[in-house]
Structure formats: structure tokens, C-alpha cells
Amino acid sequence: MSAQLIALPRAAQRWLADRPRLTDAGWVGGLTLLDMATVLDRTPAPPAWGVALWGAQTVPLVWRRTAPRAVLVAMTALYVLFQTLGPIPSKVPGPFLLMLGVYAVARYMPAAASVPLTLLSLASAAVTDALTGRWEPPRLGSLEPISLTTFAFFFALAWLLGHGRRRIDTDAARLRELNRRLAAERELNARQAVLTERARIARDLHDVVAHHVSAIALQARAAEDVLTSGPPQPEEAAHGVGVIARTADTALAEMRRLLGLLSFGERELAPEPSLARLDRLVGVATSAGCRVTCAVEVDGPTAPPAGMQVSAYRIVQEALTNVVKHAGPVAVRIAVRGDDARLTVEVENDPPAPGHRPVPGTGRGLVGMRERVAAFDGELDAGPRPYGGWRLRAVLSARAADPAQPHAAQTDR
Phi and psi for 4 in degrees, rounded to 5? Predict the structure, then answer.
């Protein structure tokens, strides 16, 4: 029961935090009623319109978050109107109500806009009180009667408090943004590390398979020679076949082990990368603060080969990773054009913002991209743009993926 009683106020606080206008209306309404109650017990009784005008000076504070400029202007105008009409002769508003409006503009507006508004409000109140003759020479050791010095002091205090709170909120928002960008960058780095490890395992698998298959081919030819040339030698042939069987068993065991490692984390990395999955990369880069536009224009009777789509996907992924590391949250443009035989990938980004600190890199990203492009007899051009930023252009050719082509045969060897 005690836990429920503690949780209820917290739930109410979260509910009110999601409705700031309702919270402002509540406390402003209470303040207005309290102000009106302070003038009702005067003798002679003030007119009703005078009491309403007095209470109306705090009503604009309901919109202090969304329209602080209009709030201070309205409060200053109501103050000037009340002082000019003088419906309650013995009641002088003073600077305390206007302090709330000054605090609002200092908190929710930049200093370049809030300082002129504060000075304008101070000047309006000072001129009004001077023309209506409500100021008297100040008395030593007392704030009464209200003087220009008193107004200036409280206006400055309210502005400093509001501006200080604005700086605190700005710093907190900047820290939240940095934390979000760091989390997105950690995700990119983690994915890149997983992909790098999977590529290493794939190379190990290639080496294991190539080694054992070569041994099997050699033993098979030796067994064939034993059986077809000269007198039959069944024992030597049987020995060769046994070596082939054992080598094949070893190759299968190594393949199962390495494929098991490759399939680890398949749920997180599935589905297989392709041009249709570029939106995942765009989403991760966008969460890091980048403004990404992506255009894919692929023509032809059939889709590009799966291997070429995977390479294009990885090139875009590495390019976006480099943008986040070296340029930060900037505008990025991705364009993929081509057909079922040729793909062109272009990634451009704007220059980093002043003061941005790039994350040191290892230089392996461009090396990996060059290897992927070379596997498709392509071209890679990466470098700074003449007007700032970075541009990467990769061209992939599907002909290199054909096993009948010489390049593919050389790669397999």
C-alpha cells in the first residue's frame, strides 16, 4: 500500500509534465485570484472593473512558454493601463508582477531579443509612473515608495535568473544530444566490429575449404593414377581413398564450426543486406543527428546480383560511419544508380560544423571499400569536395561476379 501511495504522486507528476499548459493555467489562475483578493477588502470598495484589471495583469503568463514576447508586451500594456486609469488609488503594482514576464522572456528567448524587450518594458513602466506622479523621492533604508532604482534592480534580477535557467536548459539539451549521438555511434561501431569479425571468419573459412579441397583433389588424382596406370595396387588406392575421406571429414567439421560462428547473432543482423535495406542505414545515421536523403534508381529486367547489392550496402554503411565520425551531424546525400550489370554509389556530406572534433579513425574503412570495389572490377574515388565536405563515388560491375570471367577465377585461387 505504501508503495502505491508513493507511486501515485510520481504518476501525477509525469502526467502534469506532459501538459505544461495545464500546469501554467493552474498556478496562474491561483495567482490571479490571490491578487484580486488582496484588493477586495479596501475601503472604499474598489470598482469591479478595477479589480478585474488588477487581476488581468497576470493572465498572460499562461502563454509564457510559447509566446514570451507577447506575454511581456501584454503585461506591460496592462500595467500602463492600470497606472493611467488609477481605479484603485491606494494600490501601486510595483515591479513584482512584471518580473514574471521579464523572467519568461529571459528564459525562453535568446539574450539578443530578451534584453531589448526588458529595457522597453522598464522604460514604459518608468515613464508611466513619472507622468502619473506616483513616484516620490526614495527614503533611505526602504524600498517604499517604488522608485526607478527599485524597478531596475528587480528587472535585472528577474532577467539574470531567467537567462541563467535558459543556459542550464541549453546545456542539458546539448548533453542529451551528445549522449544520443554517442549511443548511435556506438551502435555503428558495434555493427562494424561484428561485420569485420564475420569477414575475418569468412576468410578463414575460405582458407580452410581451399586447403582441404586441394588436398582431396591431389589424393583423388593419386588414387586415380594408382588404379589406371600400371598393375593395380588396391592397398595403396584404399589408403588414398581413406585419406580423402578423413580430409573431407576434417573439412566438414571446420566448415560447421566456422559457419556456426558466422550464424552467431544472425537474428540481429538479418535480413541480408541489400539495396532495399538502405533505409536501416539511413535511420541509424538520422538518429546520430545527420540529415540524410537517399535516392535509389535501378533499371533493368532483373535486379542487380545479390553480391553486388551487399557490396553497395556495405560501401554506403562505411561511408555513413565515416560521416558520423569525422563530420558529425551534417546533411548527407546518398544516390545509387544503375541496372542489373552496373551500379554507381555516391555519398556526399556537407562540411562539419565549426568546433566539431572528429573521432580518430584507423583508415581501414577506405581499404575495405577498395577491396569490395576491386572484387567487381570497379572504381572508387573518395576525397574532399571543392566547396567543403566529402564525396565518395564507387562503381561496381556485375561482370566480375561471373565465375566464367578470368578475374573471378583468379579471386577464387
Answer: -65, -40
